[in-house]
Design brief:
The protein has helices at about 15-25, 40-50, 60-85, 95-105, 110-120, 135-140, 155-170, 185-205; strands spanning about 1-5, 30-35, 90, 130-135, 175-180. The chain is an alpha/beta fold and about 200 residues long. It has a single domain, classed as Rossmann fold. A five-stranded parallel beta sheet has the order 2-3-1-4-5, sandwiched between helices. The longest helix has 25 residues, at about 60-85. It is globular.
């Protein structure tokens, strides 16, 4: 099973991904937790490049292509081998993030991004995606106390576009994407996720 978590900055998706990882391990499953961009040594190097502040202007198309390069490393060298061995893979962000951030946020072609995603992943799609949805103002408040990367420093308008993009993607993929109210307590959110995964594991989905 390939499980992904999505959401804007401060949504709580990383916390929920970690909780699910721990729960699956405790229940005897072979599982790995990874992230995007990143997950392999090469992809982590690309992550540092993408998220670091730069004096030189960062072309939006260059940003997009770097995310795709990192995803290709990630899929080929970690995700697919793990899935082929019967391991459950949990990823903190995946291809939906690029549609939301570079597509809806930056305004790049959704058609082009979808095509590049298909190439970078060789058609691999998550079995289930949890979109932890919170208002942008709440998400930004949650990350106030930490050092922000280049993407987190974007305007509220940008992050609003990303959130709307995520919700649009979810509405177009209801069979795969489960939207969860991220303003609930951490325990309540995880209970909803746990029940969903438990049901799928029992049904062999």
């Amino acid at each position: 099973m390939f499980i992904t978590f999505e959401g804007i900055e401060g949504s709580g998706k990383t916390t929920q991904a970690k909780l699910l990882h721990e729960w699956l391990i405790d229940n005897g499953y072979e599982v790995i937790l990874t992230r995007e961009p990143g997950g392999t040594p090469a992809a982590e190097e690309i992550r540092k490049f993408i998220l670091s502040d730069r004096e030189e202007p960062f072309p939006e198309i260059a940003e997009l292509m770097l995310y795709m390069a990192a995803r290709s490393f990630h899929v080929q060298n970690l995700i697919k081998p793990a899935l082929n061995s019967g391991t459950i893979v949990i990823s903190d962000r995946f291809s939906d993030a690029t549609l939301a951030y570079q597509g809806y946020g930056r305004g790049l072609s959704l058609k082009d991004i979808s095509h590049l995603n298909s190439l970078a992943t060789e058609g691999l799609k998550p079995d289930i995606t949890f979109l932890i949805d919170v208002p942008v103002e709440i998400g930004m408040l949650r990350i106030e106390g930490r050092e922000h990367d280049r993407i987190e420093k974007e305007t509220l308008i940008f992050h609003e576009k990303v959130r709307k993009g995520y919700l649009q993607i979810a509405s177009e993929n209801p069979e795969r994407i489960v939207v969860i109210d991220g303003t609930k307590r951490t325990e309540e959110i995880f209970e909803e996720i746990r029940k969903n995964i438990e049901r799928r594991l029992k049904n062999g989905i």
